[in-house]
Amino acid sequence: QKERAEREAAEKAEAERKAKEQKERAEREAAEIAEAERRAKEQKERAERDAAETAEAERKTREQKERAEREAAEKAEAERKAKEQKEKAEAEAAAEAAEKAE
Questions:
Q1: Domain spans of the chain, in order of start
Q2: Per the record, which residues fall in region Disordered (predicted)?
Q3: Which of 27, 52, 74, 96 pairs with 80 at a CA distance of 20 to 30 A?
Q4: pLDDT tier at 69 (50, 70, 90 boundaries)?
Q5: Measured between alpha carbons, how far is 22 from 16 in angstroms, rounded to an integer?
Q6: CA dihedral 4, 5, 11, 12 (to 10 degrees)
Q7: DSSP state of 91
Q8: DSSP letters along 2-39, please?
Q9: What pLDDT, on a 0 to 100 scale, did the predictor assign at position 101?
Q10: What is the pLDDT of residue 18?
């Protein structure tokens, strides 16, 4: 009876030790999973932030290009008008000179 009680106590202690190990392993694995999920979430947020920054930079570049093209077109138009005005003034001056020569 004493031996059986000792054996049962030893078996119980062994079962408790195994249960404790199993519980600790499960807790460790749960912590590792939570850490992996936290890292994945951070990585996703960083990727989303980078994508938003890239989109913003592309928008600014596009706006800058459009503004430069618009300004170049306005400059070309102003130069064309100035050339026309100069040619008109020269033609008028030549006509006046021809009239005076007559």
A1: 1-74
A2: 1-102
A3: 96
A4: very high
A5: 10
A6: 150
A7: H
A8: HHHHHHHHHHHHHHHHHHHHHHHHHHHHHHHHHHHHHH
A9: 86
A10: 98
Cα–Cα distance, 63 to 69 (Å, whole number): 10
Predicted confidence band at 30 (pLDDT cuts at 50, 70, 90)?
A: very high
Q: How far is CA 44 from CA 3, 31, 47, 48, 88, in A?
A: 61, 20, 5, 6, 66
Checking if the pLDDT of 75 tops 90, the result is yes
C-alpha closest to that of 17 among 28, 9, 6, 27: 9
Q: Cα separation of 47 and 7, whole Å?
A: 59
* Cα 52 from Cα 58, distance rounded (Å): 10
CA distance 87 to 11: 113
Taking the C-alpha atoms of residue 33 and residue 40, their distance in angstroms, rounded to an integer, is 10
Q: What is the CA radius of gyration of the chain?
A: 44
